Amino acid sequence: MQRSMTRIRTSHVGRLPPPKGSEDMPARLASAEITDPAVIAAQVTPAIAETVRRQVETGIDCIGDGEFWTARSLDHYTAHFTGVEARPVAAGEPPTTRHSTRERDEFLDFYADMDNAGTLFLVPGEKPMPPITVRVVARDPIKSKGPEAINRQLDTFKAAIERSGAKVEEAFVAVLAPGWLDHFIFNEYYKTEEEFLFALADALREEYRAVVAAGFVLQIDDPGLPDWWDMLKPEPTVEAYRKFARLRIDAVNHALVGIPTLHRDRRP
Fold first, then answer.
1. 93 Cβ neighbours under 8 A, 6+ residues apart
2. Which of 87, 156, 205, 264 sits a CA distance of 20 to 30 A from 112?
3. Could you tell me the pTM of the whole model?
């Protein structure tokens, strides 16, 4: 990432609200409903271009594409990986780890309201999400399907930056970390948790490489690493949580092996 000796440069994390009229676009991209290049050029690129313009006008130095492509669904995973499938959620079984946490047990009314609303985020214009009735599982070796899916996102981001007409100094793309992906894909194939996480890391490495090769800053998206301490059930000891975190850090580092880093000082 660029550095400055004179001021604090700005960036951000998380999905941004789509422009008005494009509220359903993230869901359509996530479900692989939109893959036709002509449709992407006509509908997706202009929406991301508007998102780029708004970030630059706000004063963001390192801008993102709004994370319109990121999702936690079977359609999204199967576009990127082999070895995953969905099965019905068994009685008393959570569809993701986020549906069974100590925080949910402590704030029952809050989470009941959010479940009824169909979202935790309440993005303006967002349509409520239906209840999750399937669990995504790994039943065979998880491997990358190649960079086609991530390249579609990267090419669209480049086209959107050009279309925006804004002066973009730096741009990033967020990709999930192995230790966050395993909150939504459950292991029913690998013998150990470590084997599973490192298989996810190997599958993600190609996407990490694609982001860097395209000239973007790679942002590793792993909110579970810092905030899962008060979520895990049962409550872990400090030593157990250290082991939990270290395994996920090791998996990220494994995924990043061989990917070049570049530091640039920005001076007046």
1. 135
2. 87
3. 0.88
Instruction: Provide the 10 A C-beta neighbour count for residue 240.
Output: 12
The three-state (H, E, C) secondary structure of the chain, written as one string: CEEECCCCCCCCCCCCCCCCCCCCHHHHHHCCCCCCHHHHHHHHHHHHHHHHHHHHHHCCCEECCCCCCCCCCHHHHHHHEEEEEEEECCCCCCCCHHHCCHHHHHCHHHHHHHHHHCCCCCCCCCCCCCCCCEEEEEEEEEEECCCHHHHHHHHHHHHHHHHHCCCCCEEEEEEECHHHHCCCEEECCCCCHHHHHHHHHHHHHHHHHHHHHCCCEEEEECCHHHHCCCCCCCCCCHHHHHHHHHHHHHHHHHHCCCCCCCCEEECC
pLDDT at 265 over 50: no
Q: Dihedrals φ, ψ of 189, to 5°?
A: -135, -50
Give residue 264's pLDDT.
46
Contact 101, 108 (CB under 8 A): no
